[in-house]
Structures are given as C-alpha cells and as structure tokens.
Design goal:
Number of helices: 6
CATH class of the largest domain: Alpha Beta
Distance between the termini: 91 Å
Number of domains: 2
CATH architecture of the largest domain: Alpha-Beta Barrel
Structural class: alpha/beta
CATH superfamily of the largest domain: Metal-dependent hydrolases
Number of strands: 13
Order of helices and strands: HEEEEEEEEHEHEHEHEHE
Radius of gyration: 25 Å
CATH topology of the largest domain: TIM Barrel
Amino acid sequence: MSKKFFIISVIALGIFAAQAQNQAPQHAKRADQLVITNAMMIDGLGTPAEGPVDIVIKQNRIASINRPRRDADYLKNAAVIDGTDKYVLPGFINMHGHLQDERAGKPQPFEYQQKLWLGCGITTIRDVGSDVEKALVQKQKSAANAIVAPRIWLYMWASGAGTEAEIRARIRELKAKGADGLKCHQLDRDTYTIVADEARNNGLKIAHHVGIEDANAWDDAALGTASIEHWYGVPDAALEGVQHFPPEFN
C-alpha cells in the first residue's frame, strides 16, 4: 500500500466517522439532542431575522444558540437538521381550538386537522371544548409522539349543576381525568365564583365564554380568569352590574 493511498484512506475514514456521529431525525422519536444548523432565526420579539445560527435542543428544550461551527462538540451524536436557506421561528399557539372528527355530519379524520395546524406552523393548541374521551386519547398520543400532531392542552367543560360540594367534587374529577384547565359558559356569578375558586385550588386555569346574562369582565378580572373567549362581556364591563339585555340584543 502506498503512503499516499494510506493518507487518503485515513482521511476518508475520519470523514465517515464524523458523519456517523450524526443522524437524521427519526419520525415519532424524540432525539436526546437535536441541532438545527445554519438557519436564519426569527425570535418572535419583533427584531430582525438573525443568523445563520445553530440551535441546540436538549430534551425538548433550547439549550443554546451558537454561530455555526463544523467541529462543534454539540454536533456529536446529535440528530441534525440542515437549516441552510431556511428560517426558524417559534411555533404558533392556537389558543382557541376544537378537535373535531366530523364537520356538518361528514367524517373528518383528526389527522387531517392536526396536519393542517402543523402546516400553518401551529405546534400547540388549547382545546376549549370537544368530545372529552376522544380528545384525551389524542392528547396522550401526541405527548407520546405516537402521532404527528401539535401539543394539546385540554380544557374540559365545567358544569354548574348541583350543590357547591358537588360542583367542587366534579372539578377535582376533571383534574384527575387529565384536564389542563376548565371551559366555563352560562354560569351565574355565584356559581362561577365557586368554580373559579376550586379551579385555583387545583391549579386549573379558566377559559370563560362569558355572556352578558351571567357575569362580565370585571368578575373575570377579580376571579383570576386566564382568558375571555370570544368577546362577550368585555364592552359590557364598562357598565355597572350585570346587564339584563334581551336575547336578541345586538
């Protein structure tokens, strides 16, 4: 074997070994360390795009953002996505979504809806009212990377029926079942106060579809509501007390 051939062989083996340390991301398998290399970054703070940069993600968390280096230690044994000529930005969060496997009586696979969300850059959804049993399955599959879907935060409907003790017990049951928060609608002020208190006791946030017939934005502010769904009750909060407008009021 000539000396020249030996040197070339060693160089080739060195390149192969370096490449073998990296791997392409695998579908439905979360890498311990993922690196997006040579990408332009939009940080979501309103500043201009920055880059190129290498973005290092460890255990599903951004660990560092670095100037690209081919010999960087963080590339070793990492799953690597080449971001050359591409842009990276934070995933969008759909704050008011509904998981639906049918529309107008026609079947619509969850997969279709979830891929539409992902295709629009939505990586997290807050479901605020769906078939609970079906939604729980989708949430669990998403968390386990068993399906291609956004992360799902599930808000379950809070009923105001029954005694105070029954209402509080039901909220604790929803928490145990897997609720990340509560969706409230058509609860009178006294009942909503109970629901909000028990939700706070159990670390559950509230999305309130507030109506002028039950409460207003002042009540939500006082009770620590996380969000008012739609906009009902917001302008009415400028008026003192609950307004008794007729149902057809526009």
